[in-house]
Write a structure and sequence with these properties.
The protein is of the alpha+beta class. It is 18% helix and 43% strand. The protein contains two helices and 19 strands. The model is unreliable at 1-9 (pLDDT under 50). Residues 9-118 form the Ig-like domain.
Length: 290
């Protein structure tokens, strides 16, 4: 009997079953915070949301009026879109800022006589994510052996600052090919946003740089926000490498085509001259006979 009772659900408990607080959120977004709970046979007294131990929202279903209350806390602005009941409480925050970052706690309490209490906490950091892929500039579409390649990759503005990396044929570019990155900043959304540029330089030479092969070369620039795996952006560029032998062969082909064209054009001119001379001779002969 004791063993069977141990498998029966404890209807007297009050537990938070899930809390949704995104670890990172963009300052331009509206963020959803949600807390799910199991109150068993308890009566729900209240659900409270805290930011860094300061209460900013309360749901009190036993109150006849003002079941939903909002309290002023710096950096926290609760929108009108919130739904709470005896199973979950979901609220939305808008007008985010750097001050919105912090530890968010959901606290659920039961009513008399036990007044059971359960709470869970999760951290959220507000960032300013890049809105565009990095931009590749300076890389041409065609190169010959011995040419020098100068390429620049520039990130979009963001906070935290982005990490930039070059890849050549899916291999990360060696540091020896890179120049020190340049950085510029602007003030926006209450953050100092950073934009970074990373230049790459190398000679198109298979002996010096074995990653260079005749044909197609794939270059890629990656912009990554630290600690946010989902925020990786990239841009791609393909260029083609030809050898000097190919260039000489192409010039020879062009020269032969040009010679053939000139020969053909010369023949056309001679035919036209012959026609003109014949026409003049026949005209003159006709006039004499007349």
């Amino acid at each position: 009997m004791i063993i069977l009772l141990s498998f029966l659900p404890n209807t007297r408990t009050l537990d938070i079953t899930n809390i949704i607080v995104p670890p990172f959120v963009d300052v331009r977004d509206v963020v959803m915070l949600s807390c799910s709970y199991n109150i068993g046979n308890q009566k729900l007294n209240s659900v409270k949301w805290y930011k860094s131990d300061k209460e900013f929202y309360r749901y009190s279903p036993l109150m006849s009026t003002k079941q939903n209350m909002i309290f002023n806390v710096e950096g926290v602005h609760v929108s009108s879109d919130h739904v709470c009941n005896d199973k979950f409480c979901t609220i939305h925050l808008d007008n985010l800022s750097n001050d919105t970052s912090g530890a968010y706690r959901c606290e659920v309490s039961g009513d008399a006589p036990e007044f059971k209490l359960s709470h869970e906490t999760s951290n959220m950091t507000v960032v300013a994510l890049p809105q565009h892929d990095p931009k590749i500039e300076g890389v041409e579409k065609n190169y010959y052996e011995g040419d020098f390649l100068f390429g620049n990759c520039t990130s979009d503005f963001s906070f935290p600052p982005p990490y930039l990396a070059w890849y050549i044929n899916d291999q990360k570019a060696d540091m020896a090919l890179l120049q020190p990155f340049h950085e510029s900043t602007i003030e926006a959304y209450g953050f100092k946003l950073h934009q970074r540029s990373l230049e790459i330089r190398f000679r198109i030479d298979k002996k010096i740089n074995p990653f260079i092969t005749d044909g197609k070369v794939h270059m890629k620039c990656v912009s990554q926000i630290p600690h946010i795996a989902s925020q990786m952006r990239e841009s791609n560029h393909i260029f083609y490498v030809s050898s000097w032998d190919e260039l000489r062969n192409q010039k020879l082909i062009n020269w032969k085509n040009s010679a053939t064209f000139l020969k053909f054009e010369s023949s056309k001119v001679l035919v036209i001259l012959a026609i003109v001379v014949s026409h003049k001779f026949l005209t003159k002969k006709f006039m004499v006979n007349s």
